[in-house]
Records
---
Amino acid sequence: FELKGMNRISFLRVIGTQMACPALDIENGFLKALGTADNFNVSDTSLVLNRARMAPLARLRAVKSE
């Protein structure tokens, strides 16, 4: 990925194996979100990827593991 100023981001050369994910539609949607995102927001527990002023493309939440 490349950070471009305040809250601007681009993901370069995004690829997937299409072998490790049992739900391929989820993997494809995630890869599409990464390739489309141009900005982000961060809070205490989440990262939100956005495109322009449209609705969020992906919302990633930190989960505490035990």
---
Amino acid sequence: INIYLAGPIEGCDNNEINDWRNKAKNNFLYGIKGINPYRAEEVGEMTLEKSKRIITKNFMDVKRCDGILAMLPKEINDRRPSYGTTFEIAWGYMLQKPVWIITDDDFVRNHPLMKYSSMMFKEMDDAIDHINVIFGEYL
């Protein structure tokens, strides 16, 4: 079972990018693997070619995964909306995959795209428990 770990990357430091993803991966049941979209990213200027490669990789990852866990914290949303994450949530919905959103941002929680296309959680532990229950019995 693969769970795509969607969340802010651009404008975030390494801890903001990876800490929550590592926590999710460490708390999934055996057999549930977290897929980090930040793997194999090149540091440096964002070119059109690089952007296309990232978008294609992320879309292919979402297609191959069994679900999407998306983190949209208010602190980061206030600095810069995570446009890529909203794409990944929409792709998951389009592909009829379960989408779990973790957010403390009321704007995100009440937005129709988020409210009707996903399961919403304020705490990561609750979302992870939900994923473990959904997929755990099949392992």
